[in-house]
Each structure stands twice: as structure tokens, then as C-alpha cells.
Design brief:
The chain is mainly α. The chain has 17 helices and no strands.
């Protein structure tokens, strides 16, 4: 309910409410099952998000105090009309809003809660959490194209340089973490962090092409990271005494099948052909080609992909290949079925294959979505009525 409400609402205060709904539910999910490490990570997760919620309220108060509205369509009309004397308060509120969305999206330097949270919760919960960071990215794309985009006057696209720099550091830190991690869950958590950096690098371009690429990659990375956490969970429950630690062990039940699924899912996470991650990165490379400093963006995207490949190749070799040469066999204390995890992982991989095979029509859909983001007049008319002058919300984009 919280996730659907956050994606569907057209009012910033309602967005705050739905954020709280999904966060309250996530607190219980995070600590479910207990354990010292999980409780410590859960306390950190709760505290960070409570601070974020407080900042959210403060930002809403500043924006409402200046504009008299929190309706997104109404903000698009009123932001360009703000008197110069009130603009400092307005953009202070908008900057705090970026901080809130940055916390949700695990954007550097606000990312410190994410690796521990994702690595210490259960696999299925971490898979579900893979969409929660995307709510932060969605908030940035939705609010800062509609209310603080081309029509905002002198403050148009003021978040772009800050967002691009933070996203680049997020991507680099995430993929370095994949190489440095000491467990599969830590690798997956840092891969999720890096995927957010990739999404936000595209989003920070603030052009129809970059937003379309960001949306495509956002869908891909949500499914790929979720599938990766489910594969790792299948390893943990069968590898008694070793869990997901990156060390050799005797082979375990269904190691061949799980290793094959790990191989396929990692290809998707890295962005290698033939799966949709490769298509998504190609779209981002193409979309960012016209931005300022694009060679650095390309170098970062390609270099971090190589780092991710090295990290997961090493862990996969350790857990599945080298462990096969160790004498003995691990037996789980309880019977652990393989059918349901295989169906769940297979369903996500099937959607990834669909995103690849139908990348043309899917990209066309996201192109149309991005074009609507940069033509807010139609949205404003749909929300506020045809008698509202939406001329101030002119189409346009940020050219870097």
C-alpha cells in the first residue's frame, strides 16, 4: 500500500504519508527473525529514516509557507510566480527535499544505512526492499522535473550538478564495495547501491532521453537485484556453518542449479549481454553522450561494470566452483525445497528476458513517459482543469 501510494499520489504531503506507511512496514520486515547483527542494522535503519522523515516535514513546511500549496501540479504553476524575496526559503525547502529523496535512494553521502540493512535482513525481505530505494529516485524525477524544471526560472534544474556528482560517487563506491565485500549478501547490497548510482546519473541529465534511460534501467535493476538476493538466500539456507561467506566449503544441495541461476542473474546485474542490463547501459551511454563531461560518465559506467564483473566472478568461483573440489557434502538440518525459489527467480529472469526481447516497444513507452515529464501542461490541466493557465510550465530540458 505504501509503495503504490507513493508512486500514485500527486501531493507532497500525501507522499510523506505513504513514505511513512511503507517505512513502518519495513521496520518490522527488517528485524523479522531476530539476531544481534540484524537488530543493530535495524536500529540504524529506523533512526536514519526517522531523521529523514523529520527533514521531510521541515521541507514541506518551507515549501507550503512560501507557495501555499503542496499539490505537485499547483506547485508547477506557483513556483515561477514566487517573489524574489521568498525564493531563498523556497529553494531551501527544495534542497531539503532532495536530501530526503537522497536518503531514500541511498545517495552518497546519505547511503551509509543501506549496505548493512540489505546485507543483514533476510533474502526475501532484501528482494522486496530493492524497490524501496527506487521510490527515492522516482521522487527526484517526478518533483524536480515538474516543479523545479524549465519553468522555474532562475532556479531551473538547480539540483542537476549536485545530483550528478553524488550519483557518480555512489556508483563508484557501490561497485568498489562489490569487490571488497566478504559475503554474497554484502556484494548484493553494494551492487544495489551501485545500481542506484547508475539510475541517478541518467536522471541527473534532466533531458527526455536521459529520463527514459533512467526509467528503463530502474525497472531492470529492481528485478535483477531482487533475483540476486533470492539466489543468495537459496545458498544461505543450504550452506550450514558457512552461510554466504566468501570461502570454500563442501558442496551443498542443488548447488548446480543454484550456481546456474547465480550466473544468469549476475550477468543481468553487471549489465552484460544478452540481458536487459546491457540494453539499459547502452541507453544510458547514448542518452548521456551530449552532456557536459560525458567521457568521464562513460568511463565511470564502463569501469565500474568491469569492477562488478571481477567481484562476482571471484565470489561465484569461490562458492560454486572451488567448493565443488572440497571433500564431503553439507546437509541441511531441515528439508529445504527448491521449487518455490526457482519459480520466483525464474519469473524475475523471465521479465528481464522480456525487457530484452521487447526493448524497442518498452523503450518507446518510457520515451513517451519522459516526454510527458517535460510537457507538464497536460498533467496540470488534467489535475487542475482546463481553465488553469499552464503556460508557465513550458516544455524543455536540461542540456547539461
Amino acid at each position: 500500500m505504501g509503495l503504490n501510494g507513493a508512486f500514485l499520489t500527486g501531493d507532497l504531503f500525501n507522499l510523506f504519508v505513504f513514505f511513512e506507511v511503507l517505512l513502518i512496514a519495513s521496520y518490522g520486515l527488517m528485524v523479522h527473525g531476530g539476531g544481534g547483527a540484524r537488530m543493530r542494522a535495524g536500529v540504524q535503519y529506523v533512526i536514519v529514516n526517522l531523521v529523514g522523515s523529520s527533514i521531510f516535514l521541515l521541507s514541506l513546511g518551507l515549501i507550503y509557507g512560501v507557495t501555499g500549496t503542496l499539490n505537485m501540479a499547483d506547485l508547477a504553476i506557483k513556483v515561477p510566480l514566487i517573489l524574489p524575496g521568498d525564493s531563498a526559503l523556497l529553494y531551501c525547502g527544495a534542497a531539503l527535499l532532495l536530501v530526503v529523496f537522497g536518503i531514500k535512494a541511498a545517495l552518497v553521502p546519505l547511503q551509509f544505512w543501506m549496505p548493512g540493512t540489505y546485507a543483514n535482513t533476510s533474502g526475501p525481505v532484501a528482494a522486496l526492499f530493492s524497490i524501496m530505494t527506487k521510490v527515492g529516485a522516482y521522487g527526484i524525477i517526478r518533483v524536480f522535473t515538474l516543479a523545479f524544471g524549465e519553468s522555474a526560472g532562475d532556479g531551473a534544474w538547480f539540483v542537476a550538478p549536485w545530483l550528478m556528482g553524488a550519483a557518480a560517487v555512489t556508483l563508484a563506491l557501490g561497485m568498489i564495495g562489490v569487490v571488497a565485500a566478504r559475503s554474497l549478501a554484502q556484494q548484493a547490497a553494494f551492487a544495489a547501491l551501485g545500481s542506484m548510482g547508475t539510475v541517478l546519473i541518467a536522471a541527473a541529465g534532466f533531458t527526455p532521453l536521459t529520463e527514459s534511460a533512467a526509467l528503463y534501467y530502474m525497472v531492470h535493476s529492481t528485478l535483477a537485484i531482487a533475483a540476486l538476493f533470492l539466489v543468495i538466500d537459496a545458498v544461505v539456507v543450504r550452506r550450514d556453518g558457512f552461510g554466504d561467506a566468501l570461502t570454500t566449503s563442501p558442496t551443498f544441495a542443488h548447488a548446480g542449479l543454484i550456481g546456474s541461476m547465480f550466473f544468469v542473474v549476475v550477468i543481468a546485474v553487471i549489465g552484460m549481454p544478452p540481458l536487459s542490463g546491457f540494453v539499459g547501459k547502452l541507453l544510458i551511454l547514448d542518452a548521456t553522450a551530449g552532456l557536459f563531461g560525458w567521457p568521464w560518465i562513460w568511463g565511470l559506467l564502463l569501469g565500474t561494470s568491469l569492477l562488478t564483473l571481477v567481484g562476482f566472478a571471484s565470489s561465484g568461483s569461490m562458492v560454486f566452483w572451488k567448493s565443488g573440489a572440497v571433500e564431503g557434502r553439507l546437509e541441511s538440518r531441515v528439508r529445504v525445497p527448491i521449487v518455490l525459489p526457482t519459480v520466483a527467480i525464474g519469473a524475475m529472469v523471465t521479465v528481464l528476458v522480456f525487457l530484452t526481447g521487447f526493448s524497442g516497444p518498452v523503450s518507446d513507452y518510457f520515451d513517451a513517459t519522459a516526454e510527458q515529464l517535460f510537457e507538464p501542461g497536460r498533467y496540470i490541466e488534467a489535475v487542475l482543469g482546463s481553465n488553469v493557465d499552464a503556460g508557465d510550465a513550458a516544455p524543455g530540458g536540461h542540456d547539461g
